[in-house]
Each structure stands twice: as C-alpha cells, then as structure tokens.
Amino acid sequence: MIRYRLQCAHAHEFEAWFASSASYDAQAAGGHITCPECNSREVGKSIMAPNVALRARGEVAIPDDEAPARYRNLVREVRRVLVSGSEDVGARFPEEARKIHYREVEQRAIRGTASPDEARALVEEGVEIMALPRLPEDAN
Ligand SMILES: [Zn+2]
After folding, report:
1. How far is the CA of 43 from the centre of ligand 1 (A)?
2. Chain-centroid distance, C-alpha 132
3. What number of CA atoms fall less than 13 Å from residue 19's CA on the CB side?
4. Helix ranges restricted to H, 1-136
5. Which helix (H) or strand (E) holds 43?
6. 79-98 as b/e: b if 16+ CB within 10 A
7. The overall pTM is greater than 0.70
8. Ligand 1 centroid to residue 8 C-alpha, Å
9. What was the pLDDT predicted at 92?
10. C-alpha distances in angstroms, 97 versus 1, 85, 106, 116, 117?
C-alpha cells in the first residue's frame, strides 16, 4: 500500500491509499479518483505540500538583524497580556499564590514579586507560577 497526498482542480487536498504507484497511475488515468469534497475528477498528486512547508519555514525564520527587535516585541506582548489579566499583589505574592493554590481564596490570576528562595519554595509546593519575561531595559 502506498499513500498519496492528492489535490483536485479546486485545490482541495486529501489523502488516498493505493495498492501501488502503478495502481494510482491506472486509476488516475481512468478518472476513477474523485475529490471527496467536490467530486471533481481532475485530481493529481499534491504539489502543494512541499511549497506550503517551505513557505511556513520561511515565515518563522527571522533574519538575524531583526531577531532582537522581534524578540523584544514578543516579550513585551507576553508581558502585556500577563500583566493586564492579573492583579498586582506586590510583595504579598508568595502568600497570595499559596492561598490560591490551596483554594483558600477566590481563584484568580495574580502577579507580584518573590525572592528566588520564595519562588523555589512555591514551585516545590506545586504552586504554579511563572517568571514574567524581563527585558534588559526593565532592569533600569
Ligand atoms: Zn475538490
């Protein structure tokens, strides 16, 4: 058995199994393969897959000279989402995080500060916390 990724004239892609490549050739030549979406008989082996894969790779590849700027923007965006959706409890963070973890208070997203030791203790207790991504400029 051999599996081909096929595409009809309307760009519908689907996969089909054939006994052999010769079997595929014979069925394709006889017009016996139809698109499951539109019943088109104009079906051929998909040539889209490798192109799509190449394009997708191209889109995620960031040129080196732009990477730092894009990374900063991404970090900024992640921070913005995390910060806007959470309550600032400041230095009470470890205490509040525990209360939430042990369901002593209403479940909510919080942010605040914790020393490395406090953060480690929370993690060891199984309290789910994450460090906000920091940018070099934030340290000022
Ligand atoms: Zn189709």
Report:
1. 8
2. 19
3. 4
4. 21-29, 48-60, 67-84, 93-101, 116-124
5. strand 43-45
6. beeeeeeeeebeeebbebbe
7. no
8. 5
9. 92
10. 56, 15, 11, 15, 14
Centre of ligand 1 to C-alpha 40, Å, is: 5
Q: What is the pLDDT of residues 29-58, one digit of tens each?
A: 888 999 999 999 988 887 544 444 444 444
pLDDT at 140 over 60: no
At 23, list the tokens: 């079997």
Q: Is 118 exposed, middle or buried (0-12, 13-18, 19+ CB in 10 A)?
A: middle
pLDDT in tens, 67-114: 677 777 777 877 787 778 788 898 999 999 999 899 998 888 888 888
Residue where the block lists tokens 């104009």 = 42
Structure tokens, 75:
């970090």
> How many A from CA of 27 to the centre of ligand 1?
17
For the beta sheet containing 43-45, the strands, ordered from the edge strand earlier in sequence to the opposite edge, are: 13-18, 2-8, 43-45
